[in-house]
Structure prediction request, 134 residues.
Amino acid sequence: MQNIYRVFASSFVAVLALSACAATQQKTPLAEAKNVALGQQAYADGPIVQPVAVLEDSRCPQDVVCVWAGQVRVKMLWIRSGGRQQEFEVTLGKRTPIADGSILLERVAPARTTSTKAIKPADYRFDFRFDGGL
Prediction:
């Protein structure tokens, strides 16, 4: 009877250990920084980046006449060697210094089509381009 308990206890510990490994595995970054969702990691021609949150989306909706086109600002993470993470911020159409170059937020989708309907965070997609490096 004691052997059954030992086998059960050993099996239980093994299952816990394996589940802990599965929970801590790193996500595989997308091969290129196109159509990247919030929370996804992607290679941006060198650095691995991850959009974390939309800080501002003041783009002019298509059903409104605006004096200012607005902007999109996104909170980002730069995933460095050894898993270190460094926060930074990007603005649509503006270069941001990172690593040994700069990153550009080239595109944000979807477009704001109406002034009354907010875009859900899960619906955002981003395109990035990194220029620089060796």
